[in-house]
Write a structure and sequence with these properties.
alpha/beta; 11-stranded mixed β-sheet; Rossmann fold
Length: 287
């Protein structure tokens, strides 16, 4: 599996793409429990990639129940060093309409109860997270989508990650707008932080479905309309993914692939052996 460098995390069935050959479905046991579901290994025009449904097949897991540490560790086990995350979001800006795509470059963490680090329990470490998403991947994805001219695309912006599962109050939605945030969702964190700790590139394709609740006519939007937007977004990303995967396959060298080189500050001789064993796949080269 060493030749699998690209991971896609998103909804169920994303790998149901034109010219895709499913090679295998793999269950991976990790030191952090079971991932959301099996990993689907595919071949897309000669390039291997691995897909994982973030909420499990059939959408069984709430955002706060997603086993993000197991998911990221499983990708690492397969050799992945680049992750494209795909997520539905609400828009916090008039210019970002339903069915628009956004490639955020910043994030604000409003989650409350999520395990957001591989460090702890005898090993202290601190990674840089000033730029939460990989700018190299963002540039490639932006250029790829722009050339196809299928969706309206926004490059840059701030993603608010809320705890959920309830959506925002109007007061919260307007607060985030006052912060000049672009979109709001429930799943980018701790994924992005864990991917950085695991020395992977991580970029997010945020697909707008609605205007959250700040817009005065939001109540007039029906569930049927939201489902329509989600279905169109899914159709669009399925069309775009083969080209995205092809173009990011050539992206090899990135500083994020050594993001933990200077992160561990605990004396190596003081780290418990069971912790070293647990994190060997991530940090053995630094112990």
């Amino acid at each position: 599996m060493a030749d699998i460098k690209i991971g896609i995390i998103g909804g169920s069935g994303l790998y149901d793409l034109p010219d895709v050959k499913v090679i295998d479905n793999i269950s991976i046991a990790t030191p952090f429990g079971q991932p959301s579901d099996q990993y689907t290994i595919v071949d897309i025009n000669g390039i291997r990639a691995v897909f994982l449904p973030r909420h499990g097949r059939g959408h069984r897991l709430l955002p706060g129940e997603i086993p993000a540490k197991a998911n990221i560790y499983g990708f690492k086990t397969l050799g992945v060093d680049k992750i494209i995350a795909i997520s539905a979001v609400g828009s916090l800006q008039e210019k970002i309409a339903p069915e628009d795509f956004v490639l955020p470059d910043q994030v604000i963490d409003r989650t409350k109860h999520r395990d957001a680090s591989f460090f702890g329990n005898g090993i202290a470490g601190h990674i840089s997270f000033a730029d939460p998403f990989c700018t190299g991947l963002i540039d490639i994805i932006y250029d790829t989508i722009q050339k196809q001219n299928r969706v309206k695309l926004h490059k840059g912006g701030t993603y608010i990650c809320m705890e959920g599962p309830a959506f925002s109050s109007k007061a919260e939605s307007n607060l985030y707008r006052s912060w000049q945030a672009s979109v709001i969702g429930m799943t980018a964190l701790p994924e992005a932080k864990l991917a950085r700790e695991a020395e992977m590139c991580y970029a997010l394709i945020a697909m707008s479905t609605d205007y959250d609740c700040w817009k005065e006519d939001t109540e007039a939007v029906s569930v049927d309309m939201l489902i329509k937007h989600m279905q169109q977004n899914t159709a669009n990303i399925k069309t775009l993914l083969p080209s995205i995967i092809k173009n990011i396959a050539a992206y090899q060298k990135c500083a994020h692939h050594e993001a933990a080189r200077y992160a561990v500050i605990t004396d190596k001789n003081k780290i418990p052996e069971q912790v070293k064993n647990k994190l060997a796949r991530l940090y053995e080269k630094y112990f």
